[in-house]
Amino acid sequence: MRGWQLAAAALLGVASVAAFAPLAWFPLLWLTLGGCYWLLNRVRTAGAGALLGGAFGLGFFGAGVSWVYVSLSVFGGMPMAAAAGATLAFCAYLALFPALAGALFVRFAPGPRLARALFFAALWALSEWLRGVLFTGFPWLAIAYSQTPPSPLAGFAPLAGVVGVGLLSALLAALLMELLSGLLPRGAAIRAGQRRVLSGFPLLPLLAVALLLAGGASLRTINWTAAQGAPFSVALLQGNVAQDVKWRPETFAESLSTYHRLALDHPARLTVLPETALPVFYERAPRDYLEELARLAAREDGDLVFGIVTGDGERYANTALSLGVSPAQRYAKSHLVPFGEFTPPGFSWFMHALDIPMSDFTPGEAKQAPLAIAGQQVAINICYEDLFGSEIIRALPQATLLVNLSNVAWFGDSLAPAQHLQIAQMRALETGRMMLRATNTGMTAIVGVDGHVQAVLPPFTRDALTGEVQGYSGTTPYVRWGDVPALLLAVLLLGLGALRRRSGHY
């Protein structure tokens, strides 16, 4: 293996980030990942495959999650060199998963081109699934997220979820590369004056590509869920409180005043404030202020949800509470962020280097009932939790609406807020439910049941996003079966590939 191959793999990884939000050039992913597949087909050892996959991953994550450095250095208080080293180490860890896929592909891939493409897609999907579950999981930048609308592959999300769409995205990338590789000799033969049809013409890859694109586009026309009840008004409040002053006592009154004013000026049946919008323990929050929020919600015979920390200082939870005409209810975040909300065993030394307030939360129950508010059954998820589709569906089909409370001010003016909104689009597609997002600094948005962003506030502005939304009932195949069918398909493809490694085409 030559140096240019490693450099090419790393550059392809970097370029792949443009397939995701905010640029969202979704077809680019098919070409860049296809390029990685092409490179892997030109090495002969598992070690070389691991190096190529790792180089792709290092470029991909180094560019795509560079915002981790912002949280560690700018807001976490870590020295710049240490923050850069920690970010690089984190990206190197994430790169191990494409490295594993690359090594196994080169070592075990079957000979026929269609079989190789299927084998590659299965390996890539399983490596991403593993990344999403190991050590509590980090599925950010799973390739399926690049295929939200208008990508035709978004049509497969209600059936197979992010794992299935990732498998099909990798398959399409490999098939396109097989198609391009097969066409090149044909062009050379024509220039040489040969008129015969080459036996190697990639008819099967061409047919498979057409079926994937047409099938996904057709599935986009299916309504998997149905509207339930009448539309109702919502107000999603974006306070734009800078992270470096959010928890300072001298800014406490200003934070409360900001959200009171936004709620006062934008009456709605359902009002949603961001994660930890009130920077104080609930037990110490001014009672008259909470009563005033409840009164504002009652104007529209509605309810208000806000983020706050509950607990006694020793054990505390990242919580969403409701106030208004419905009985008060709560949701406690269950999937906590490593190093941000809890300290993994053996890493207390690392947390001592950071200046992150309240970084040892107690998780809530894994399965919590939706909040019965504003005439809906609302499934709350807090910030990072919406990365885990298999956990979101625990509240379904009972839930009629998804609501996310976030604070991504930790990552500044980076790619993170736009990428996070794209993740919310995938959750809406998988569940057949609208997703409402109330964030501190962006991106506060209303996502339709079809995965399209219906409205969004500009980041780093103080405003309220208002609109009419709709509850939905019903069950998509993904809600019913979760990731199981996609995982079984991936394992089956690996098994078939192993069995046919030395056999003919199929």
Automatic annotation (TrEMBL):
<feature type="transmembrane region" description="Helical">
    <location>
        <begin position="51"/>
        <end position="70"/>
    </location>
</feature>
<keyword id="KW-0472">Membrane</keyword>
<dbReference type="InterPro" id="IPR036526">
    <property type="entry name" value="C-N_Hydrolase_sf"/>
</dbReference>
<keyword id="KW-1133">Transmembrane helix</keyword>
<feature type="transmembrane region" description="Helical">
    <location>
        <begin position="197"/>
        <end position="219"/>
    </location>
</feature>
<dbReference type="GO" id="GO:0042158">
    <property type="term" value="P:lipoprotein biosynthetic process"/>
</dbReference>
<keyword id="KW-0812">Transmembrane</keyword>
<feature type="transmembrane region" description="Helical">
    <location>
        <begin position="155"/>
        <end position="176"/>
    </location>
</feature>
<dbReference type="GO" id="GO:0016410">
    <property type="term" value="F:N-acyltransferase activity"/>
</dbReference>
<protein>
    <recommendedName>
        <fullName>Apolipoprotein N-acyltransferase</fullName>
        <ecNumber>2.3.1.269</ecNumber>
    </recommendedName>
</protein>
<dbReference type="InterPro" id="IPR045378">
    <property type="entry name" value="LNT_N"/>
</dbReference>
<keyword id="KW-0012">Acyltransferase</keyword>
<dbReference type="InterPro" id="IPR004563">
    <property type="entry name" value="Apolipo_AcylTrfase"/>
</dbReference>
<keyword id="KW-0449">Lipoprotein</keyword>
<comment type="function">
    <text>Catalyzes the phospholipid dependent N-acylation of the N-terminal cysteine of apolipoprotein, the last step in lipoprotein maturation.</text>
</comment>
<dbReference type="GO" id="GO:0005886">
    <property type="term" value="C:plasma membrane"/>
</dbReference>
<keyword id="KW-1003">Cell membrane</keyword>
<keyword id="KW-0808">Transferase</keyword>
<feature type="domain" description="CN hydrolase">
    <location>
        <begin position="237"/>
        <end position="471"/>
    </location>
</feature>
<comment type="similarity">
    <text>Belongs to the CN hydrolase family. Apolipoprotein N-acyltransferase subfamily.</text>
</comment>
<dbReference type="Pfam" id="PF00795">
    <property type="entry name" value="CN_hydrolase"/>
</dbReference>
<dbReference type="InterPro" id="IPR003010">
    <property type="entry name" value="C-N_Hydrolase"/>
</dbReference>
<feature type="transmembrane region" description="Helical">
    <location>
        <begin position="118"/>
        <end position="143"/>
    </location>
</feature>
<feature type="transmembrane region" description="Helical">
    <location>
        <begin position="6"/>
        <end position="39"/>
    </location>
</feature>
<feature type="transmembrane region" description="Helical">
    <location>
        <begin position="82"/>
        <end position="106"/>
    </location>
</feature>
<dbReference type="Pfam" id="PF20154">
    <property type="entry name" value="LNT_N"/>
</dbReference>
<comment type="pathway">
    <text>Protein modification; lipoprotein biosynthesis (N-acyl transfer).</text>
</comment>
